[in-house]
Amino acid sequence: MRSLLALLLISVAMILSACGGTPAPSAAPAPSGATPAPASAPTTPLIMAWYPNESGSDLKDARDALAEVISETLNRPVEHQTTTDYIIAIEAMVNNNAHLAFFGAEGYIQANERNAAVVPLVIPSGSDGTAETAVYYSWLAVMRGQEENYQENGVYGIDNIQGKRFSFVSNNSTSGFRVPSSNIVRYFGAMEQWQGLTADDLIEGGSNSFFADVQFGGSHQGTLVNLITDRVDVASFCDTCVANYVELVAGSENAVGAVYRVIENADEPFDKYPGAEFVLIESVPVLNAPFVANGAMLSAEEIQALQEVLTSDAVAENPRIFATKEAMDAGFRPLLRKTGEDRFVVVPDSFFDPIRAMR
């Protein structure tokens, strides 16, 4: 896992040679000038915004498990703001309409640029309990049976994605846009034909464009549906957002060439596509997504209290927050999974600089 994270940082360095490595995690201070919580704070609802990926009814119990901890810690009720578009959740934090949110690094960076009071609260660690291994994966996938079109002498590559129908998640997504678009621009931009290629050039398709057609799934689940239903030839989405709906049937987890299948009795939107199979033609590690706090709506003391409880052993061992195999076998649909020593850890804003360097 450490070698995969190193690959991510090396990739970033190729984009901006000035980019450094991931800093050691340390406490993220509340933003300077943060507004203290009003006197009514203990009884007013705390709003937590969620991206479309985590807004489905199948994840209600997982959202509620986190809300219970937050509510008990701050002695405030928690209301979930589920959304149908990334920008709705981001705008809620930017405009001080939400106290907390679960964003990818790109969404956090966008919110922080427009509202400096938005700060990282915690991130889920890697399986060894540290920030150094805290990664998930951005995939490029094609339907099974089409994978030979993206191989040369048996080796997978992305040369042949040009001119195809392609689906991103949202241009606010880290693993569903920022990382894959950056990799595509770097790879093809080195070719004479595509010198000067930018991420903006990948957003619209057409005869004179890089892609023949471009779709945005709106969520990672929606992007995989675009692929399964033949709206696109290639799709970019992440492993964690579809993990509840698919199973590995060939190859190694998160490895190029791995084959995944939609499970029987999958929740919506995959209940219509049991057995559909796809193949990974690229898999890139991405820095884990942060839970973020709004220092204009929460006091520094409240933010510190949340960090202390979320990084506690009790939360790390809560099977409804870091779901165990037993909990999942019993039907629990997880937001986060217990794969080892997984827990929440605190990181500084600079932890996300490798993603900033891709922009």
Automatic annotation (TrEMBL):
Residues 1-18 form the signal peptide. Keywords: Signal. It holds the Pfam family Phosphonate-bd. The keyword Repeat does not apply. It comes from the Bacteria. This is Phosphonate ABC transporter substrate-binding protein.
